[in-house]
Write the structure tokens for this entry.
Amino acid sequence: MQRSTAKDGNEDVRRYWNQEACGTARPIVGEVPELSREWFERIEAYRYELEPFIHSVAQFTRHHGQRLLEVGVGAGTDHLQWARAGLECHGVDLTERAIEVTRARLALYGLTSHLQRIDAEILPFPDQSFDLVYSWGVIHHAEHPERIIAEIRRVLKPNGRFIGMLYGRHSLVALKLWVKYGLLRARPDRTLADVVAHHMESPGTKAYTIHEVRELYAQFSQVTATPMMTPYDRLRLPAWLTQIVPARFGWFICIQAVK
Ligand SMILES: C[S@@+](CC[C@H](N)C(=O)[O-])C[C@H]1O[C@@H](n2cnc3c(N)ncnc32)[C@H](O)[C@@H]1O
């Protein structure tokens, strides 16, 4: 059953992401006019140069014709790939800005999606509505990630698939934050969870172990949680070091799960 409890626990998160859609900062887009084709193309080129593995995780074209919900569309870069691949697209995000940018982006390429600004802790869709739910780097920003995951499972059809990514706590990114905000500030007692919550993007960001990810998706079947070493882990570290660190200490945990 759909939950109907009103909540505003993600207001600080909404305020943070509403200032600027994710991945659209000035160093990425330069001086080109906002929402122009060139602006969007710079965002897209930058994203897939940095995170080329998104294509092999999402496999956009493999799901042609399916009914998709993307949770947390951000600037709509992946959402555009789903629409190009011929899925029936639905997208939600906590912020007005993300919906505005994604809508403008799809329109520019003559594509459409049903986009709504909502908090994904309550999804406004009937049970068993979607073949596929996709969410890249979103759920860990919510106050209650477990509610979003339960909602995703509810709206998936039987045998429907979830594809997504959550941040990994036992990662080089989290360790670098701890060195900067714990060790070098004479606060070595700070935990990895605490520095991530206070110094990574919106307030209260969470990061998980692989075991915790599996527990979050325990109601699903065929769950795979694959850690991935990212450019964010490698940043400012010597190549000889990052080359010998195993992928399980990477910042991204890519998830596949079946309802
Ligand atoms: C790091 S960005 C990722 C956006 C996009 N998936 C991407 O990979 O570029 C996080 C996005 O999640 C959205 N978000 C955070 N909490 C949310 C929630 N509770 N419900 C819906 N969207 C949320 C934010 O507004 C923001 O657009």
